[in-house]
Amino acid sequence: MKYYDSQAVVLSNEWVNDEYKHMVVFVGSEAATVEPGQFFNLMCPSTDKATPFFRRPMSTYFANSATGQIEFLYKVVGIGTEGLSTLQAQQTFKMLGPLGHGFNLKPTDKHILVLGRGVGLATLAPLAEYAASKNVRVTAILSAKDKERLMSQHRFADAKAAIIEVIDSDRSSAIDHVDALIRDVHHQQPIDAFFTCGSKRIGKLLQQLALELGIRGEVALEQNMACGIGMCHACVIAIKDQAQTQLVSKKVCKDGPVFDIREIVYE
Ligand SMILES: Cc1cc2nc3c(=O)[nH]c(=O)nc-3n(C[C@H](O)[C@H](O)[C@H](O)COP(=O)(O)OP(=O)(O)OC[C@H]3O[C@@H](n4cnc5c(N)ncnc54)[C@H](O)[C@@H]3O)c2cc1C
Ligand code: FES
């Protein structure tokens, strides 16, 4: 896969709530040709407090090769993302990508279920839109701490997804409730594949359901990274091989970040 070290121009970088920012950048049409689930490694600016040495990985929230624009939805959690949050329109920074392998839809897929939490929704929104463009029905379960932190509903609505919102504050996001919801959706129209990002708890549930119900599943993993291109081994994890009998080492940046959910080792 070809990637570019682009000089991105910031077009906007606004808060969407008290934790997340939405940034739109221009990188040109070649770098903005991105598959759902791929990511960029962003050089984050220094702040008064610190200089982030390594780049930080971010999924593409939206990419348009015609306009050359890319959007990110990111949570401000530490020195790198604090640096990103200071960027103003017209400032520039380097970003490397698109990187990694994205999600896989099969031509036979008729109905998929995407289940994301928090910033995982940023990773799944482009997949929902891509599936809709292929006339695949999408059911989207969106999970968050509370109503205020549920994001991106409009993106899933534009993809004509059947949206189910679950939140911690009324316990609708409890794992047994989500389990029952998924079984009900599958009963109404069989699900061909699950896709998830953003929560180990949800990943573990989907892995169990994938094995029990014989449904294909993929998860986009978040892992600390450095180079983002398979050189430094910072992102190596152990996953199960296809026969599920042995553990093998994989680089999340290069072999992923999207993996078959049955291969993941959840503690
Ligand atoms: C492929 C990929 C796609 C991602 N997409 C998004 C996205 O679309 N939006 C978004 O907000 N975040 C995303 N992340 C997570 C994002 O990379 C981290 O939040 C970011 O690197 C934190 O950097 P920091 O310097 O602000 O925080 P740090 O000071 O480095 O760390 C703050 C906290 O975040 C944790 N952390 C650091 N790096 C990661 C990481 N890579 N994954 C998970 N936790 C981490 C640390 O352990 C620590 O607890 C993605 C991660 C990966 C691997
Ligand atoms: S981040 Fe360097 S090998 Fe994956």
Automatic annotation (TrEMBL):
<dbReference type="GO" id="GO:0046872">
    <property type="term" value="F:metal ion binding"/>
</dbReference>
<keyword id="KW-0249">Electron transport</keyword>
<feature type="binding site">
    <location>
        <position position="232"/>
    </location>
    <ligand>
        <name>[2Fe-2S] cluster</name>
    </ligand>
</feature>
<dbReference type="GO" id="GO:0050660">
    <property type="term" value="F:flavin adenine dinucleotide binding"/>
</dbReference>
<feature type="binding site">
    <location>
        <position position="235"/>
    </location>
    <ligand>
        <name>[2Fe-2S] cluster</name>
    </ligand>
</feature>
<keyword id="KW-0479">Metal-binding</keyword>
<keyword id="KW-0001">2Fe-2S</keyword>
<feature type="binding site">
    <location>
        <position position="253"/>
    </location>
    <ligand>
        <name>[2Fe-2S] cluster</name>
    </ligand>
</feature>
<comment type="similarity">
    <text>Belongs to the PyrK family.</text>
</comment>
<dbReference type="Pfam" id="PF10418">
    <property type="entry name" value="DHODB_Fe-S_bind"/>
</dbReference>
<feature type="binding site">
    <location>
        <position position="227"/>
    </location>
    <ligand>
        <name>[2Fe-2S] cluster</name>
    </ligand>
</feature>
<keyword id="KW-0285">Flavoprotein</keyword>
<dbReference type="GO" id="GO:0051537">
    <property type="term" value="F:2 iron, 2 sulfur cluster binding"/>
</dbReference>
<dbReference type="InterPro" id="IPR012165">
    <property type="entry name" value="Cyt_c3_hydrogenase_gsu"/>
</dbReference>
<feature type="domain" description="FAD-binding FR-type">
    <location>
        <begin position="3"/>
        <end position="105"/>
    </location>
</feature>
<dbReference type="InterPro" id="IPR039261">
    <property type="entry name" value="FNR_nucleotide-bd"/>
</dbReference>
<keyword id="KW-0408">Iron</keyword>
<protein>
    <submittedName>
        <fullName>Dihydroorotate dehydrogenase electron transfer subunit</fullName>
    </submittedName>
</protein>
<dbReference type="GO" id="GO:0006221">
    <property type="term" value="P:pyrimidine nucleotide biosynthetic process"/>
</dbReference>
<feature type="binding site">
    <location>
        <begin position="56"/>
        <end position="59"/>
    </location>
    <ligand>
        <name>FAD</name>
    </ligand>
</feature>
<dbReference type="InterPro" id="IPR037117">
    <property type="entry name" value="Dihydroorotate_DH_ele_sf"/>
</dbReference>
<feature type="binding site">
    <location>
        <begin position="80"/>
        <end position="81"/>
    </location>
    <ligand>
        <name>FAD</name>
    </ligand>
</feature>
<keyword id="KW-0813">Transport</keyword>
<keyword id="KW-0274">FAD</keyword>
<keyword id="KW-0411">Iron-sulfur</keyword>
<dbReference type="GO" id="GO:0016491">
    <property type="term" value="F:oxidoreductase activity"/>
</dbReference>
<dbReference type="InterPro" id="IPR017938">
    <property type="entry name" value="Riboflavin_synthase-like_b-brl"/>
</dbReference>
<dbReference type="InterPro" id="IPR019480">
    <property type="entry name" value="Dihydroorotate_DH_Fe-S-bd"/>
</dbReference>
<dbReference type="InterPro" id="IPR017927">
    <property type="entry name" value="FAD-bd_FR_type"/>
</dbReference>
<dbReference type="InterPro" id="IPR050353">
    <property type="entry name" value="PyrK_electron_transfer"/>
</dbReference>
